[in-house]
Amino acid sequence: MNRSFPQQFIWGSATAAYQVEGNNVNSDFWAEEHAEGSPYKDKSGDTIDHYSLYKKDIELMAKLGFKAYRFSIEWARIEPAKGHFSVSAILHYKDVLETCHAYGLTPVVALHHFSSPQWLMRVGGWSSPNIPELFAHYCEVVMKELGHLIPYVLTMNEVNLPVMLKEIFSKIGFVPPVGIDRESWVAPKWRQSAATLCGADPSQYFTFHMISDEKSIKLMKEAHKQSRAVIKKIHPETKVGFSMALPQIDSIPGGELLAKEKWNSYFLQFLDMMEEDDFFGLQNYTREIYGPNGQIQPDQHTEVTQMGYEYHPEALGKVVEEVAKYVTIPIMVTENGLATAHDKKREEFIQRALTSLHDCIEKGIEVIGYLHWSTFDNFEWQSGYGMHFGLIEVDRTTQERIPKNSAYLLGKVAKENKLEVNLEVR
Fold first, then answer.
1. Which Pfam family is one of those matched by this entry (predicted)?
2. Which among 2, 145, 169, 239 has the fewest CB atoms less than 10 Å away?
3. Is 425 part of any domain?
4. CB–CB of 332/368 below 8 Å?
5. Is the CB of residue 125 less than 8 Å from the CB of residue 202?
6. What is the DSSP pairing of strand 2-4 with strand 331-336?
7. Residue spans of alpha helices (H) in 152-255
């Protein structure tokens, strides 16, 4: 059965600067990797050297049939020291954008994808009362130089992820454990080391992933609003939004209230951020099921990905349907994918996820694009290089790019703007 998508539908894939560029030495994540006792499994190093190889990479995406490329601009490269803006970094990203246009790829640019400049930690990081102005000023510089080349921009990636990960991060020292006041909290040694490497006191050290309390969430929302205003003032034609990580939330009897609370925490509390946005970036990987005693973890009978998530491609359509109850602006799927060493599972995942997405479009929901995560196998933050999210394999000893069958599958869908399902979709 063939499923056609709307004209001008945006088909492509996504990366994040820190995960593919390599040697982002001025980033707070670089400090965390190199901190004494760091929980990171690997050091990013050169990653896949996309900073040097972007032209060949973009050419490859175009040859595969992709029509869009979502990537991030690294704040720590653009503004390596507070108030100092790198001309060479701006020119680099200008060439990345121009290369996208030359090969017919629509650029979708994230101005922040988790990583921040080390100097920001010296002024309080994302808990600083000045963060809205600091971030908006960075956005202003980028848009003045590059805005004419950017049709779609995400101010920030996955603004709700810190809330989702709060319990996990508490265990490794990202945020104070529940019940402990931040001011009286003593950070674990690896975070103290990371702060020192940033030239900051541990009390000042507050990364993007720590934005989970009411005060910092309010500051982050204001940072988005101020940056959106700056972007629109400089280049009104650019479509502005932000992205959120949203699992499908399910419940069994007795877990309905907890599931409702989770949806409020993960999504509803951020609705006021998008009141003047042009589109919403939706990112989905799995579902979460809640019972009377909390989240029900996958058992031995549940198929999971390398990340330990439940393998559930249809979660994408379910989340789009739920979000559409609250959102009136167009939805762009800015990330969707899975970590697996078995590319056949990725092919199946893409077909099932896109089938569920097409069902949403058939119901009248305005979905304007699908960007798969990720273009390449790359550096997966604390999980290092062991996770395989990519449509394209990379031999990191030679930096050779090897497209997988899933890349050709998605490229064919993009070229034809339709999905030919050749499996039994469950």
1. Glyco_hydro_1
2. 2
3. no
4. yes
5. no
6. unpaired
7. 161-164, 166-172, 189-197, 214-234
- The answer to whether residue 72 is domain-embedded is yes
With a threshold of 0.90, does the pTM exceed it? yes
- What is the set of active-site residues? 158
Residue 255 in tokens: 């877990």
Q: For residue 66, what are the domain limits?
A: 2-420
- Cβ–Cβ < 8 Å for 211, 121: no
The CATH number that applies at residue 360 is 3.20.20.80
Cis status of the peptide bond prior to 4, with omega within 30 of 0: no
Contact 313, 356 (CB under 8 A): yes
- Please indicate, yes or no, if residue 426 is contained in any of the structural domains: no
pLDDT tens profile 238-287: 999 999 999 999 999 999 999 999 999 999 999 999 999 999 999 999 99
Q: To the nearest 10°, the Cα dihedral for 58, 59, 63, 65?
A: 30
Residue 289 lies in a domain: yes
Query: 331, 289, 403, 356: which is closest to 154 by C-alpha?
Result: 331
| Rg of the chain on CA atoms, in Å | 20
